[in-house]
Amino acid sequence: MYQKYELLFTPHLISQLRGLRGEEWKKLIDYLSTLPETHPDALAFSMVMIRLNSCLTCEMDSYRAQRGCALCARQTILSFKGTDKQLLQRYERARKEIARLLKEKTPVAEKAA
Q1: Residue by residue, what is the 3-state secondary structure of 16-42?
Q2: What is the pTM of this model?
Q3: Cα–Cα dist 95/100, whole Å
Q4: Residues 89, 26 contacting (CB under 8 angstroms)
Q5: How many whole angstroms separate alpha carbon 91 and alpha carbon 82?
Q6: What would you report as the CA-atom Rg of the chain, rounded to the nearest whole angstrom?
């Protein structure tokens, strides 16, 4: 009856992005695809994708949501105007941010309040 929509990029979609960029991108995707969804590196990659895809502004009745996260993520990576190196740098910055947040052990929701 109703299609299941995801509004945020989740780690189980990572493997679907493998062949979209160059060799370094493929290596990163291959590495991340083997990790559990809760691994900090998988979470960092998801954070990059959420930011690139503008997932926080996606709404259930939007064209983007109806197409689905996988297709939206593929389109975002394919249309990214920067280099693969720039994408990898975004990922590295996100890894550092996740590591810092985990070290602080303060839930993000508490910081927002």
Answers
A1: HHHHHCCHHHHHHHHHHHCCCCCCHHH
A2: 0.84
A3: 9
A4: no
A5: 13
A6: 15
Cα–Cα distance, 45 to 18 (Å, whole number)? 13
Residue at 34: amino acid letter:
T
User: How would DSSP label each residue in 34-79?
Assistant: TS-TTSHHHHHHHHHHHHHHTGGG--TTSHHHHH-HHHHHHHHHHH
Each residue's pLDDT tens digit, 87-112:
999 999 999 999 999 888 766 556 55
SS3 breakdown of the chain: % helix, strand, coil, rounded to 5?
Answer: 70, 0, 30
Report residue 34 as tokens. 């083997």
Task: Report residue 21: phi and psi, to 5°.
Answer: -135, -155
The residue type at 13: L
**Confidence tier at 1 by pLDDT (50, 70, 90):** very low
DSSP state of 108: H
